[in-house]
Amino acid sequence: MKHMREIKASSSHPVIQHRLVFTMSTAFHDKLVGAGINPDIVLRSSLKTVLNRFQQRFHAKDSIGYAYGLHHDTDNLHAHVAICPRTAKGNYVGISMSRTRESGNKNQMTYLMRAFDRENRKWDKLLSSPDKLRKALGVHLDSDKIAIAPKISAKQM
């Protein structure tokens, strides 16, 4: 809020945050658990990768702020993400679906969806190849080391 007060918005109703939800399918979740991989860590790692790429693409020499929470309160593991609407330097962070010359928007939402889909496909490839999976498990992804979780039953989940 201090950051928001320091950077005055031109709108009478400024955006306080952009809210997004990233969801993991039950089938993908079960595939990770079956391989002994903690789905929470994969979702968190994918989320950080996607948001870092978003920052590099749309705010290369600046930084965006965000907060997230992982939720298990529905049938699908998901993350709620709140993105600050201003960068560290005060530039507006847009999360738009449109791309027009008049609006100046860059269709950031489609970029985020595609980047998240790429992350999911990357994990799907790793899970389909035991050799690649073994090699990848020792690698840090966005400073999060992949944690091996014991196989748990549906009742334990």
Question: What labels would you give this structure?
Answer:
single chain, 40% helix, 3-stranded antiparallel sheet, 157 residues, alpha+beta, two-stranded antiparallel ribbon, 5 strands
Helix content: 40-55%
Principal-axes shape call: elongated
- Tell me the number of strands: 5
- Summarize the main sheet: 3 strands, antiparallel
Q: Can you write the helix and strand succession as a string?
A: HEHHEEHHEE
Strand order, sheet with most strands: 1-3-2
Mean pLDDT: 78
Beta-strand share of residues: 5-15%
**Domains (count):** 1
Through-space gap between termini:
37 Å
Low-confidence stretches: 145-150
Tally the helices: 5
Class inferred from helices and paired strands? alpha+beta
Radius of gyration: 18 Å
What does this structure look like?
By secondary structure, the chain is an alpha+beta fold. It has one domain. The protein is 40% helix and 14% strand. The protein contains 5 helices and 5 strands. The strands form 2 sheets. It has a 3-stranded antiparallel beta sheet, with helices on one face. Strands 4-5 form a two-stranded antiparallel ribbon. A hairpin with a 6-residue loop joins strand 2 (66-71) and strand 3 (78-83). The longest helix is centred in the C-terminal third of the chain and has 21 residues, at 108-128.
In a nutshell, what does this entry contain?
By secondary structure, this protein is of the alpha+beta class. It is built from five helices and five strands; from the N terminus they run αβααββααββ. It has one domain.
